[in-house]
């Protein structure tokens, strides 16, 4: 349908429209939906100015197509999601994506109200039901995260208006009623993660100093201990940490899958028992900090579980000691800890030079054991270090497909004793056996995640799918020699660089795990022959062109 020029509040925007020529209209009319999605995604990547317009038009479309009534979302016979549920879910996910956080929460509240009314006493809730509730729970977490971004100001989250508080209170009441209904029938609360995240919007408890039950960590530098495995270690500042961190960015979206609170906690414990005790997260990874903090708090070996989180400054902010102290306090409160082992700092706008002062203030805070950077390029990392600030790490993208750290960043790391914490080293799961000999995927195939879509685009500019298959073939041959998978070889290749401190491997807690496979990265080393065969393929790539066109590490985010 056409999108009206009338805005949601009844006013009208200027009556203007650009001409779309006939041939362009023909393309739009005839391309398959997946093709349109792929092209639109590429267009958004080419010009950042397109994104606000896209979000605005999407919001108008959603307003124009708003349903006049709420459909029945669950079947009365077996309490399974109806077909209407999936359409309703798509709608509220779109709302949270285009800055309509409160509208999204209102829609999720309708879903929870209908779950509350289910006759769960006479209906057997099976694994499929548990999965449905876990997905809704993850949606609620993502909606609250999107809303926090919407409410963000330079001094923290703005106060809620009375009508906004009512929306959240109504949702909380629905959730509490749902919990009570499930408890009466002997079931666990279905939306525990979302409920915990939602509570912070009403109490704003992140602004308070950590108190009550917290992990109290001593002043000595962290020293990794593990008798369970042969995981390599390295010095990160004064700390000794494992060379593989578990990445929790999958908590930011149900696009990677959803799991119940109990299953997530079990997987955390399984990883810790195997020696994977270092975790990377961020203030905007859904409820990653909160879930990790709740897990660590109850562990007998809490002192051995290492936290690397982030403070990411995306919006214009006036830096002061109070602002920095408040940001750190917020992280500690969410983590339920009195200190953080590594706080990684991201600054969006290099034109605003306050990032130097912010880094100084973070380093000076006694509650932060080590200052790391996140997605800083070489020049700006050097600028901070040359003022006397001690930086122990920089988290950047580095893989066989993205070689940008090798061109400039590596030398600075050697000079200043900074270690790289690398992400994207498995290219969103594309550097894996299952893609060997397979045709290039469509970006929106069911098995493609936001990460794999991102790294598929990197593969395209690096050298294309044909050269990627050549790389997979070489990695497979090397893997057979060492009795490991393609993924393990890809991780080992990154670890062979002495300026790399650790590889961050994404984990889907409670959904799937690769503990045994990840441990194999420490059972061998690549020899000269292995490295030479890989280099032959890399020499055919456009790695240098990628560096020159995209810019140094982190440039894609700016």
TrEMBL record:
Domain NADP-dependent oxidoreductase as annotated: residue spans: 244-538
InterPro entries (alphabetical): NAD(P)_OxRdtase_dom_sf, NADP_OxRdtase_dom
Cited Pfam families: Aldo_ket_red
A molecular function GO annotation: oxidoreductase activity
CDD domains: AKR_unchar (cd19101)
Swiss-Prot/TrEMBL keywords: Oxidoreductase
PANTHER family named among the record's database cross-references: NADP-DEPENDENT OXIDOREDUCTASE DOMAIN-CONTAINING PROTEIN, PROTEIN TAS
Name this polypeptide is given: Aldo/keto reductase-like protein
Species assigned in the record: Mollisia scopiformis (Conifer needle endophyte fungus)
């Amino acid at each position: 349908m056409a999108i009206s020029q009338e805005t949601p509040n009844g006013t009208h925007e200027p009556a203007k429209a650009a001409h779309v020529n006939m041939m362009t209209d023909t393309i739009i009319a005839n391309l398959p939906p997946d093709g349109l999605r792929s092209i639109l995604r590429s267009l958004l990547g080419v010009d950042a100015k397109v994104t606000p317009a896209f979000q605005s038009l999407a919001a108008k479309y959603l307003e124009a197509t708003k349903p006049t009534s709420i459909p029945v979302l669950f079947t009365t016979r077996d309490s399974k999601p109806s077909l209407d549920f999936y359409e309703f879910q798509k709608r509220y996910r779109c709302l949270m994506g285009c800055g309509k956080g409160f509208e999204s929460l209102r829609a999720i509240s309708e879903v929870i109200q209908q779950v509350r009314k289910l006759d769960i006493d006479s209906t057997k809730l099976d694994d499929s039901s548990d999965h449905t509730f876990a997905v809704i729970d993850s949606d609620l977490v993502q909606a609250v995260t999107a809303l926090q971004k919407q409410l963000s100001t330079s001094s923290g989250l703005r106060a809620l208006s009375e009508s906004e508080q009512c929306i959240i209170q109504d949702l909380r009441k629905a959730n509490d009623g749902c919990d009570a209904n499930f408890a009466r029938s002997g079931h666990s609360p279905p939306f525990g993660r979302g409920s915990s995240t939602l509570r912070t919007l009403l109490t704003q408890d992140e602004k308070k100093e950590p108190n009550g039950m917290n992990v109290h960590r001593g002043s000595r530098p962290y020293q990794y201990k593990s008798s369970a495995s042969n995981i390599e270690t390295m010095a990160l500042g004064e700390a000794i940490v494992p060379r593989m961190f578990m990445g929790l960015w999958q908590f930011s979206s149900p696009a990677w899958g959803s799991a119940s609170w109990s299953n997530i906690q079990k997987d955390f414990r399984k990883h810790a028992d195997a020696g994977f005790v270092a975790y990377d997260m961020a203030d905007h990874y859904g409820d990653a900090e909160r879930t990790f903090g709740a897990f660590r708090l109850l562990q007998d070996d809490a002192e051995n579980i290492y936290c690397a989180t982030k403070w990411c400054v995306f919006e214009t902010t006036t830096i002061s000691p109070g602002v920095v102290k408040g940001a750190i306090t917020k992280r500690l409160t969410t983590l339920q800890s009195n200190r953080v082992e590594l706080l990684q700092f991201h600054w969006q706008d290099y034109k605003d030079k306050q990032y130097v002062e912010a880094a100084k203030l973070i380093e000076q805070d006694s509650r932060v054991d080590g200052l790391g950077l996140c997605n800083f390029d070489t020049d700006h990392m050097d600028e901070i270090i040359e003022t006397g600030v001690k930086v122990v790490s920089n988290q950047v993208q580095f893989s066989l497909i993205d070689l940008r750290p090798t061109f400039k960043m590596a030398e600075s790391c050697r000079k200043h004793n900074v270690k790289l914490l690398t992400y994207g080293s498995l290219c969103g799961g594309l550097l894996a056996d299952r893609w060997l000999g397979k045709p290039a995927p469509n970006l929106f195939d069911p098995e493609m995640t936001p990460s794999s879509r991102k790294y598929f685009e990197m593969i395209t500019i690096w050298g294309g799918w044909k050269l990627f298959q050549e790389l997979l073939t070489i990695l497979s041959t090397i893997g057979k020699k060492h009795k490991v998978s393609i993924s393990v070889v890809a991780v080992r290749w990154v670890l062979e660089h002495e300026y790399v401190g650790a590889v961050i491997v994404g984990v889907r807690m409670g959904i799937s795990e690769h503990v045994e496979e990840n441990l194999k990265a420490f059972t061998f080393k690549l020899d000269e022959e292995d490295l030479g065969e890989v280099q032959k393929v890399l020499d055919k790539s456009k790695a240098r062109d990628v560096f020159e066109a995209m810019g140094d590490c982190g440039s894609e985010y700016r």
